[in-house]
Amino acid sequence: MRSRRRRRPPLVTALSCALAVLMAVPTAASGDTDSGGGAGAEVVRLYEEVSVATQRYEAGRREAEEQRSRAKRLERLLDRERRDTAALHGDLGRIARAQYRSGGGLPYTARLLLADSPEELMRGQRAVRQADLAVDHAVTRSRRARTRLAADESKTASAWQALERRNDELAGIKRGIERKLTEAQGTLQGQADASAAAGACRGPVRLDQPDPAFTQPWIPPVETYGLSAGFGSGGERWASRHTGQDFAVDIGTPVRSVGRGRVVKVSCGGPFGIEVVVRHAGGYYTQYAHLAAVTVEQGERVSTGQWVGQSGTTGNSTGPHLHFEVRLTPQPGSGVDPREWLAERDVRL
After folding, report:
1. pLDDT tens digits for 145-203?
2. What does the alpha-carbon distance between residue 163 and residue 36 come to, in Å, rounded to a whole number?
3. If DSSP codes are grouped into helix, strand and coil, which group holds residue 150?
4. Which of 186, 283, 311, 342 has its CB surrounded by the most CB atoms within 10 Å?
């Protein structure tokens, strides 16, 4: 005799898979930060943790949205099962009433004995057997439907609640990492402000960074950003016109050299705060200003995408951002539009 295994409802299976994906809790990045990295290295590490936590939280949120859709579909199926169960109960009632109207009060044996002919006797026997089978079938289906309905509702509710709890846990983990990041950013900016006020850099912060092996020769100075003040724009913050392109990024965001070159200036005072200037082939210079930390030394050669510093809000700055300039000389006053200059090199901001 073959054993029958009950199929799990599709939503319960999907919810179980979702929980398995979400069970991996974001943890600290493996390995210690570079010696001397301090708050800058901590900010970079926490950025990575926030990124991982955000990805897992967003994956859980998307999965929850999918489960809501599946739950709605399952609810429609359950409603149909409820209606089918009610219909089965109605069938039982109709069968019982039909038997009563056709003489159900008289024992079957007596009814058969009173038959007028063998044909009527056979028809009566078939009718009795069919009625009995119909009743047995209807009762069995009704019981199975009720059992399946109760099991599906219970398992679905349990799995759904577990998924919601896990999503709440992920959201809490993400908030905790973000709080640590805010504290580390405050420490980093405090150190930067002290250096800028003293006009003396603390020296380069050596950070573990990904291999900057870009296939293209030129890239944007930061990976993700929002553009704010553009080249030539006016305002009370500048004596005449804005001399660069601002990128709205958080404190501690890695700042990259847009192309190969040599560091010709590292400065930690004045209106630009902490800044780095890189000379590129062709006689152009790029400036990265209002930094919170530098990761290179003057005279050092840099490759495309190599980190030259971390963004901040030192000098004449009203908030965290990167001030990026392209110049014809290392000094201010010879700037060209950075967006047009990068666009000529196939970099669209």
Report:
1. 667 767 777 777 776 777 778 778 888 888 888 898 899 899 999 999 999 898 888 88
2. 42
3. helix
4. 311
Any alpha helices (H) in 9-107, and if so which ranges?
A: 10-22, 38-101
User: What type of residue is 1?
Assistant: M
| Helices 38-101 and 10-22, packing angle to 10 deg | 170
Q: Residue 111: what are its φ and ψ, rounded to 5°?
A: -65, -40
Spatial distance between the Cα atoms of 105 and 56, rounded to a whole number of angstroms: 68
Token output for 125: 């026997």
- Cα separation, 261 vs 280, in Å, equals 4
DSSP 194-239: HHHHHT---------------SSS---SSSS-EE-S-TT---TTSS
CA 311 to centroid of chain Cα atoms: 24
Distance CA 338, CA 290 (A): 17
Locate 232 and state its tokens: 């030539």
